[in-house]
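Hi Q.,

Before the meeting this afternoon, I wanted you to have the N-oxalylglycine prediction in hand. No need to reply - just skim if you have a minute. The sequence and ligand are here:
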Amino acid sequence: MRSIPSLLHGDTPLDEVAADLRLRDWTTLDIDPGHALLVAAATEARAHQAIVRLRPASTGRDAGIRLAGMRGDDTLWLDAPACGGAARDLLAALDGLREGLNRRLTLGLASVEAHFAHYPVGAGYARHVDGFRSDDARVLSLVLYLNRDWPADAGGALRLHLRDGPRDIAPMQGRMVIFLSADVEHEVMPATLPRYSVAAWFRQRPRPA
Ligand code: OGA
Ligand code: MN
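Predicted structure with the ligand bound:
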């Protein structure tokens, strides 16, 4: 039997993530930028982008947001038929993370959804929260960066607006940021280079109507 792909080695990183999330509403974790799953995902994202498979985030699940001038990214959901093995493995790894978090925290994470994102040079995403007013299913947001050798002066930070002030996180390959979807306002600063990431949301089951 094929084992479930994993981004993390052993229990310690997830124990630390869970410990952080018990204390505050965000955390960050760096995994090896050379991890085979990351390298494959970074390659796959760029291959999709090269043939325009990532589309402006104005259709489908995020309809309307780009129209308001909020965001300039192109996205492709990891469960799209066009996706390949790296996307599938990454989605499986994220689902494994979901199970690991459920064992440690009582967040009731029932499923994960995730997309590749590409921000063209100069594009960003204005300050927002990930929870939709109409839908509180998104509990935890996760962003995983796919940019090897990201220069310190290239911009493109994820800016978290925290209670004690803003915190900028550079989008280096292997860096993972996890935060409470409904609580943490954040924005993506424009960059001088194309910027690749995977954004994922761990969802609870919607409340019965
Ligand atoms: C998002 C988002 C942050 C990032 O897709 O909702 O906020 O750093 N992404 O790419
Ligand atoms: Mn967001």
